[in-house]
Amino acid sequence: MVSDNDTAGRPELFIEERLVDGARVVSVRGEIDHDGKDVLRGVLLSGDGAVPARLVVDLSGVPFMDSSGINVLVAAHQGVSGTDGWVRIAAAQEPVLRVLELVGVDAIITCHPTLEQALRP
């Protein structure tokens, strides 16, 4: 598990990783904003910007995400472009899903209502 430091009483960002049926599942809990983006980026992208071939980002525990989080997700998607891999978003809460739809991220990264659906081939 990875978490950022509690800054000025703000809630921490908790991230858990696991492998499920050959896909890397990254479950995030907390707000993804400017303060937490580097923690998320460090988990989703390696130092050279590489992303695993199949990545599911579980946002079920994320009540808020700003453009900082969106930029990290797009960078992860770009990291698998040109490969046979993919990035999928699972279980985004309604406010986060609305933001993803508003900026068009859902057009480039498939959003699934559940983690189980995101893991299907």
List keywords for this structure.
alpha/beta; 4 helices; 6-stranded mixed β-sheet; 30% helix; 121 residues; single chain; 26% strand; 6 strands
Number of helices: 4
Strand numbers in spatial order across the main sheet: 1-2-3-4-5-6
User: Count the strands?
Assistant: 6
Q: Beta-strand level of the residues, as a percent range? A: 25-35%
Instruction: List the helices and strands in order.
Output: EEEHEHEHEH
Mean pLDDT metric: 89
Provide the fold topology.
Blueprint: E1 2-3, E2 14-20, E3 23-29, H1 37-44, E4 54-61, H2 67-80, E5 86-90, H3 94-102, E6 110-112, H4 115-119
Parallel strand pairs: 3-4, 4-5, 5-6
Antiparallel strand pairs: 1-2, 2-3
Helix pairs in contact: 1-2
Describe the structure.
By secondary structure, this protein is of the alpha/beta class. It is built from four helices and six strands. The protein has helices spanning 37-44, 67-80, 94-102, 115-119; strands at 2-3, 14-20, 23-29, 54-61, 86-90, 110-112. It has a six-stranded mixed sheet with strand order 1-2-3-4-5-6. Helix 1 (37-44) runs parallel beside helix 2.
